[in-house]
Design goal:
315 residues; alpha/beta; Rossmann fold; 2 domains; 6-stranded parallel sheet; 12 strands; 36% helix; 18% strand
Length: 315
């Protein structure tokens, strides 16, 4: 039985975009023991990955060196970070073969074979899958092996029932990773009002930050009572469950919209700083609202038009 290690330590969003790598390896090595090595903070979302057998949690020690966390020998290691630190970490493993991403640091290529992506692989997920294919994985089009856990579905349904929410709700994370990607507050207020006019409930998600708290209080002050907040009140596994039950998700280039796309939930995303062809919610570029001049040039009505199409199909 082959023993395979997927190493992906950095960035929660990119970790999710790499999920199809595990499925490709499972397709190519049905009986393999597949382990995913990552930061301890990402353990919960990896518990929803149905293609892996175990999770190896990594913690840094002093001087940016990784502890010797394993002596197990692997037949195959995939370094999906390809940076300096991941190269130091990979060096500590025993393995027969190792592959890394096309844009890996020079030091990474000393320990792993760099995989040049296929010419048709524009999206970052497809480039990750190319690494898996080079290692013997099989996958025609990217499939995300993600499924909410039964107990989390029940927990979220209980929370929704407690708020009186039965159906027709969307999720929104108004925070942006980069300040110049932030929409002004009045645009969100207008969006919420148009949602209320259509009988659509909106639930805020994200970290419990002062901005989100101020945002939610502003909505209450404006008497937009169709808005609820679960920001900071659910963990990553529960977020997976919540997304799976929602009708659509709205947000900037962040975890929420990519999580929605991974489970084939409609994702309406707002882009300006990043190229949507490279990193839009996978398979949903038609719902990606992009204006290179800035997000302020993307009208609220564009989101409403996309939601009208979604809810027309649901009804």
């Amino acid at each position: 039985m082959e023993k395979i290690l997927i190493y992906k330590y950095r960035n929660l969003r990119d970790l999710l975009l790499a999920f199809p790598v595990a499925q490709a390896l499972r397709n190519g090595y049905p009986d393999a023991e597949i382990t995913w090595a990552t930061h301890a903070r990402y353990e919960s979302i990896l518990e929803c990955n149905t293609a892996i057998d175990s999770i190896q949690l990594l913690r840094k020690s002093r001087f940016l060196k990784f502890r010797s966390y394993t002596k197990k020998k692997y037949d195959l290691v995939l370094n999906l970070d390809g940076d300096f630190l991941s190269s130091l970490a990979i060096r500590r493993y025993q393995y027969n073969r190792s592959f890394t991403v096309y844009n890996a640091a020079s030091i990474a290529t000393l320990f792993s074979s760099k995989v040049v992506p296929d010419s048709s692989s524009t999206h970052v997920t497809d480039r990750y899958v190319d690494v898996a294919r080079a290692a013997g994985g099989r996958m025609h089009a990217a499939e995300f092996p993600i499924q909410p856990l039964y107990e989390d579905i029940n927990s979220i349904r209980s929370k929704l029932n407690g708020m009186g929410i039965i159906h027709n709700f969307v999720l929104l994370n108004p925070e942006a990773e980069y300040e110049n990607d932030s929409w002004e507050m009045y645009r969100y207020l207008k969006l919420m009002q148009l949602l209320a006019d259509r009988g659509i409930v909106c639930i805020l998600v994200g970290k419990n930050t002062p901005y989100l708290e101020y945002f939610y209080n502003s909505l209450i002050d404006n008497k937009l009572l169709n808005v609820y907040s679960l920001a900071g009140k659910i963990n990553l596994k529960q977020l997976v469950a919540l997304v799976s039950l929602s009708n659509a998700c709205i947000g900037m280039d962040g975890l929420l919209v990519h999580l929605a796309a991974s489970m084939k939930v409609p994702a309406i995303s707002i882009y300006s700083s990043t190229n949507p062809e490279v990193c839009c919610p996978y398979g949903q570029i038609s719902r990606c609202l992009f204006d290179k001049r800035g997000v302020e040039f993307i009208p609220v009505e564009a989101i409403i038009d996309a939601l009208d199409v979604i809810f027309t199909r649901i009804c």
